[in-house]
Structures are given as structure tokens and as C-alpha cells.
Amino acid sequence: MNPAAKPQPNDDVIVRAHGGGGEMMGRLISDHIVSALGNQTLNALTDGAVLPCNGKHIVMTTDSYVVQPLEFPGGDIGRLAVCGTVNDLAVMGGRPIGLSLGLIIEEGFRLDRLDRILDSIAKAAREASVEIVTGDTKVIENVRGDGLFINTAGVAELDERARLGFDQIRPGDAILINGNLGDHGIAIMSVRDGLEFETTLRSDAAPLNAMIGDLLSSGVAIRFMRDATRGGLAGVLADISDRAGFGIELSELALPRDPHTRAAAEMLGFDLLAVANEGKVLLVVADSDAERCVDIMREHDTGRRSARIGRVVASNPPLVELVTEHGGRRIVQRPYGEELPRIC
Amino acid sequence: MNPAAKPQPNDDVIVRAHGGGGEMMGRLISDHIVSALGNQTLNALTDGAVLPCNGKHIVMTTDSYVVQPLEFPGGDIGRLAVCGTVNDLAVMGGRPIGLSLGLIIEEGFRLDRLDRILDSIAKAAREASVEIVTGDTKVIENVRGDGLFINTAGVAELDERARLGFDQIRPGDAILINGNLGDHGIAIMSVRDGLEFETTLRSDAAPLNAMIGDLLSSGVAIRFMRDATRGGLAGVLADISDRAGFGIELSELALPRDPHTRAAAEMLGFDLLAVANEGKVLLVVADSDAERCVDIMREHDTGRRSARIGRVVASNPPLVELVTEHGGRRIVQRPYGEELPRIC
Asked: Which residues on chain B are in Cβ contact (under 8 Å) with A62?
């Protein structure tokens, strides 16, 4: 940094909320990243890019992982990296054909710990039936003590049957989810805070490509899919209402939630709708195919608690509304910043 | 880290040399990464993976960038990231079709500095005729003060005419390089040390895909290509002699070297053969096509100082030998660790 530079006001620097999957992050991406690098593919701001390749199409995606702690109940940074990238490909209609692995490791990091995380990467990749095909390793000085950052990128063949996108969504479509909300974020937070229910809470990190592949093969009319990571379900639903221009009506009674996760979230003061998941996909499907979708999803371990949780409505302005357990209504807003930092 | 853990001997932890592109890094990759994750594609340990895709093949590669300082004469971390990934695809015979961009940014990082680096990424991508098609952004706490790490992954369509690999190399083949050795590493080091010739030394970071594409289109018999980044030319030549099983004879008189870079390297005590480049490709080509290759390369700005610098020989054991300016011979060894840390 230039030592002669004057101190700058806070809005001229990166702050934590720029990484949280909410409004601040949206502005960073649109006003800085897309404005510098924008092109038709990047501007779509989907979970992955669809590219023409060898006469057909591929999907490409990337994610970096900076989670703390590196190991937590139900997973670790390595499992997270594989699942996150596989899921981003799958929700775009891609069949993963290869992942890359970029490791940034601090000096002093223990090799036995690295081996545990590498074994976890190998296990998650086997679960997802995908291979790590190329990689890169960098070593940095030990200053932070964080130990390890991981980037995974992924490539998939596009299932050419898939017709997915915000523009496919119609009023009356059903909203589905494949299980409990917020288990990942709350598991991480409970470890950090040393909460006593630490042992019963587990991250949901899991590869969803087998379940999603079955849905696509079955020919059900899926309009849109997205994994509800940073920003949680609320973030995905806000994107849908913004980009599709329709409202969403959610039923609180229908939301699958683990009672321990729910209790922990209440104690910690978090709204499970805004908490990150790592093994949850939100689907928008034709109402007539909703039950069939739920049946197919429930055949998979990753979808046992699948449920229809709401529907698309032609409201103006397009709002996301939650019908509460008590029959009231509240507006679900896009999370502003980062409710839980370093969650993925 | 577990506070109860006993202190471990040094060989149980990551040290800086694990990231240097030399012997230590080779052992980290083979004994830990490949042993956990290995498969036929990864085990090839080439600059990128060749994968079947949509009935033909693609190339996939990844690199993380942790260079310090982030901005330096001739480039910055953004330009480096684009060039490095494009070049890894090109040396595998790939025509790049898309790059991903993963940013890990520290809180407090200035947005105007981020904008400069994003503009540099955009400029390098235009030079390489490739787009950033997907990305990810994470924010971490400001502890280190490093500011920014970048990962780029890339995908390319494989030029199916290319027949590249260690197994294609034969005694008698010519060794070519597209210009001066070590400009990148020495430029970085001179900035760090505040050397007075700082202003005349510039990184060579440049995308080489146009030049390499012309070579492939021309039908010349290229056996093998690799960009000589970490570990420098010595690292690439050591890989060739190990994997192809032949010796290499280099002519010191033929090596293109900038006089300022050479003077700085001598002052700093570095061997230019082992210093990182970011715009240099080493080629092994059929002897009969060597002059034609050099002519094609010299038509490009990135290849003006291309030269034939040596040949493959059937020596036993397979050694890399340098015929010095004075007619003597010395063995060129694989660099052990990291001569210049955080160079890319």
C-alpha cells in the first residue's frame, strides 16, 4: 500500500459484508467485478457458466473456501469444496466430468491434518462420482494461522434436456427443498461458540448430483434450481423474485427444520431462512410435477426430508412472503451482509 | 489447532520449500496429494488435464496466485493469473474457451486498488481473446495484510492435431524457448529489495496462446511444451529428463537473457535457469522443424527473441548439462525448494 495514501472513508474499502451473499456483495459484483469483466456469459450471474464446447455445451463453475474452523461436525473444508462445486454444476443441469483443486497452505500446517482433509476430498469425490483431475499448490508465510484456503473449479457436460433459468419460472409453479434448513451454518457457529449441543448438530454438506440427475432423467418439468449456500434460502428466493419478476409465498409449517438446529438458531439469534446450507437445493417446478419430484428426491439419502414449501405468485410488487405457523404473514428480505462470516 | 498437540518435528509440517516447484514440492504432491486423490488423469501431473467431453476432448487447468507485491513492473497479480492459466491450457494444445475467477480479499482492501487489478484482468483476457465466464468472491479478516489471493481455472477445447507428451520426445529433438529467461522472477525480487535497476526490469507475463496456436496450425512436429514458471527452465528440463528418460544438452551462449536481468540476478545470487518466468514456453520439436518453429514464434511480440537453446541426447544416466560460454560443462540440477518465495 502506498504509504502516502490518505485514509479513506469506509465505503472505499472491502468490508466483511462484501462476502456475505447479500446486498453488499451484490453491489460489489455488479459495480466492480461485472463492470470491469462483464460479458454475456458472466452477466448471467448464475451458479455456473454455460459455454459452447465441441459442438455441444459445458458448464463451468468455481468456488473458494475459507471456512473456519477447517474441520467441523459433519465435514471439513475439503468435503465442502467438493460438494459446493459439484452442486453448482448440478443445479445448472451439468453432469460433472472433472474438478480442479487449488490449495493455498500456510507454512507450519501439519501434514497429518492436510492428509485428513485430502482423504475427505477423496471420499466426497467418490460419493459424487467425480475425479480431481488437476491441481495447484501454493505455500504462504504463517501469519494468519488460518492454515488453508481451497479453491475448486468444476466442469460438466450440460444435460441438453434441461431448460433452466429465471425466465422459465411461471406463477403457480411449486417451490421445493430437499431437506432441513440451516444445518451447515448452525453447525459451524455452534463449534465456534462452543455451544453444548455441538455434538448433535452436523453440517449437511453432500453432493446432490445423483439426485438431481435422476430428476432430470425422469423428464419432470424443472424450471430452476439453485443450491442455497451463502445468503440461505432467503437469498435464493430474493434472486428469483428480482429476476423472474414474480412473488413467492412460503409456508412456515412446511419448512423442514431439525429441532436441534432450530433451538440453536434461536439461541444464537439467527433466522434459518438466511443461514447457509451446503447440501440443499431449492427447486422451482411445474405444479403438476411437484409430487413426482418430491417422490424421486425422497429416494435419495440427500432428499429424505424433501418437501413442497411454497409457490410462485403473480404479486405486484414481487415480494417473498412467509405464511407463519400462526397464520400471519411476514416479508422475507434479502440478507444485507454476512450473518455468519467464514461459513464456506 | 488442538492446543494439546505436542510440537512436531519439521518434516511433519508444511515449509516454504513445499511451494517452490522443486524436489520438496514434488514429494508433497506425490506422497500426499496424489496418494490421496490419484487417478489416471491427475497422475499425469501435466499442466492441465485432458478430459473426454461431448465426444471430443477438453483441457482443464487451475492455478492460485499469492504473489507479493500485488503490483510490480510489467504486471500485477491479475495479469499473472490470466496469463498463467491461458498458458497452461495452450501448452497442452488447448484453445481457451473460458476462465473462472476466484477472489479471496482481506477486509480493508481498497476498492480502487481492486478496480485496477480487475481492469488488468480484463486487459489480459482481451489480449488472450478469452472471457472470465464465472467467478466467486470471499472476504476474510484483515490479519495478514496481504490483501488478495486469486485463483483462476481454465477450460479449452483440445486441438486434436496436437500429439504432445513426454513419451513423444526423441533423442535429436531440438529445445526452443521464446525469449529471455527469468525476467518475471527478477523483476519481482528487485521491487522487494528496492534495487536501483527496478525501473528497467519488467515481468514478462504474457498470454502465449496466439503464438502457440499458430505453431499448432502450421503442422510443425511439436513433441512437448511447458511454460517455465516455478522452478524455471531447470525445473522443466529436470521433468523432461526424468519422465522421457533422455538427457538434455543446453548451450549457455544460445540462452536469450536480458543484460539488466542478468546483472540483477548475479547481484542477488540467483541462477536464471531456476528463476520463474510467466511468458516463456519451452518447446521440444523435431530437429527438422526447429528453424521453422523459431521463424513462426518470432512473428509474435511474445516470441521476438525466440531461440534454439539445446537438444535431447541419449545419455545414460539422463542428465541435463549446460555447455558454458567458456566451453566447460556443468550439470543443471532440479531446484530443491523455493528460490524466490511468493513469485506467482
From this structure: 100-102, 134-136, 151, 153
